[in-house]
Amino acid sequence: MGNAADSNEITRQYFDSILLETRYLDADLPSTDLTLYQEHFATPIMTAALSHLHGICEGAMTEIAKGAHLAGAVHWVGMGEDDELEDILATGARTVKIIKPHADDSVIFHKIEHAIAHHAFAVGMDIDHCFNGNGGYDNVYGLPMHSKSTKEIAAYAKAASVPFIIKGVLSAQDAMKCIEAGARGIVVSHHHGIMNYAVPPLMILPDIVKAVDGQIPIFVDCGIASGMDVFKALALGATAVCVGRELMEPLKEGNVGVTRRINAMNLELMSCMARTGAHSLSDIDPSVIHYRNFL
Ligand SMILES: Cc1cc2nc3c(=O)[nH]c(=O)nc-3n(C[C@H](O)[C@H](O)[C@H](O)COP(=O)(O)O)c2cc1C
Hints:
With 295 residues, the chain is α/β, with parallel strands linked by helices. It has ten helices and 14 strands. Residues 48-52, 78-79, 98, 126, 167, 189, 191-192, 221-224, 243-246 line the site of flavin mononucleotide.
């Protein structure tokens, strides 16, 4: 029996409600090259901001970074100590460091400075990790969290000489506030179901795309498990996507497993692009999308 309130289940159902038409005439094998913040990548499939992967394989946090790097993908990382981040960045992976919304601002400013000093590709914050489910502020591994104001985000973005990205946007209102604060990207996400009955990222994405109007890249995560899912997110306006839990099983094999899974998803994305007449990521046409409302 499923759980009707579970945002992960609702999100899966929404992915599966999206159907695609095909466009074979004048179609050809596509390129999935992505240019992001003036750098070039082989795929729009990125690894999600993960943390605490101990036990999955030896050195899992660096193995996933290597796996992303070998696939020509952007790597993201979540909370963790400074030395762990240094090891990750030493792999050469182009890494986005997501910092928690710590109650203590000095921790945030330190982590921004530290990540940039060690050549992070970008930095950011998962703003959705501020509250717990019991009417209070969250406490993550003993560290107190707090909600953030647009003004505070603006101060973090100003302190960062690399793009500052806000993760955990699930409304056009927050998206507009992120732009106002100087964020250079947003991740449309419900943080794998941090709240029940959260709107699926792909359901709210068109509203956010309309509000953002091309001003900054829009990334999407939550429940992406195939190249078809990636295609659907891109068709609805995402610049690129992050994949987390789908990489946990492949990560048992270390970086090889991660690279293999990203490459396999990318090939599936390419097939889908080919069959819908998209020669490049920018050709992906939202008008191929239909919704399964015949049941
Ligand atoms: C083990 C694990 C650790 C995570 N740690 C973080 C984190 O530190 N910071 C963060 O912003 N998100 C974190 N996330 C959330 C992911 O970045 C992502 O938003 C979420 O898992 C949804 O993507 P998925 O469905 O592809 O896993 C974590 C997820 C998992 C599974």
